[in-house]
Specification:
- The chain has 338 residues and is α+β, with helices and mostly antiparallel strands.
- It has two domains: 124 residues, no CATH class; 208 residues, no CATH class.
- The strands form three sheets. The chain has a ten-stranded antiparallel β-sheet. Strands 1-6-5-2 form a four-stranded mixed β-sheet. It has a two-stranded antiparallel sheet with strand order 3-4.
- A hairpin with a 7-residue loop joins strand 3 and strand 4.
- Helix 7 crosses helix 9.
- It starts with a strand and ends with a helix.
Amino acid sequence: MIKRVGFFREFATQDADASAPSIHDAVRPCGLIDESGLLAYLASGTEIFGAMGAERDAITGAEWIPGAGSLVTDGTWMWPVELRHYVERYHAELPEDFMADVRAARYTAAPVTRRRTEEIILEVFGRSSFTAQATEGPWTDGFFTWYLSDLTLQSGARMLDSLETAGLKIRLPLTGDISLSVKGQGGSGSRRARDGRPAAEVLADPAAGEVTLHLWFASDTFTTVGVRRLKGTTAAVVHSLAGLQEPEREQVVAALVRSLDQLRDRCLGFVLDRAGRSPLAAWDAVVCDGTSPSVALPDSIAVDRSRSAPPSAFGNMSGTPYGHLTVFSRGPADRDRA
């Protein structure tokens, strides 16, 4: 069973509850002599659930903490990513049994195997409600779509580099092959791209039409990324979540969140719909033109503050800043009721 540390009741994570300790009681005037090592350990864990947006500092309310609500593990312990902020700012005191494990590991969390990661995700989330919801409507393929203002050779290469760093590789690990297909403009059928051009060049080529590329999470597990051209140089980069089981899906989503964080300066917005409640194209006008949503809301949607629909258009979803974007996300209870 995974051990939990740092889930204070003021935190807006799915594990926080009224019986949890208060962060105010954990604040100390100065840190431990090895606090720098503790901070390094908290930063070196494996992220198993990625949350977009930010949450306010629960003590002062003066700062926004990016990615708050994301979950990190070392295989034995699990903690919210914002815990590091409270240790660094307020020297939050943590349980001695956790600190003993940190010191025994010499302040570096060991890599977590894929199998152990899957076990933890299943334990934490159980049988996901997303699986049941995916069969309720006409759209059943989950997706994570980024809207990029200018997809060029340079930005395409940067995107693939960020995906690679996040653990989603364009080459099949066993053979080194790249699976890239294109569907020509005018609806001509898909075909393998065999002209030897770099994948980033094909992705960025407006004449290529719709492009689909395999991203390998493991030697036997992949997802796909496709590019749809919109107005001008704007492109919708669609990551499919179809066919992924719950543990794998959350790991892929976490990897995509890490990758997107490197690209958000060029991002007009994004949509995360794990269960495929809505059609892909329904969000083009919402993100690019600032219109109000007309279909069921996804898990998260981010829009540019300068041209977005009013917050009321997103119902009870909470808005938090993410650079120049505002992210509207469902809370855990909202997801259960959807």
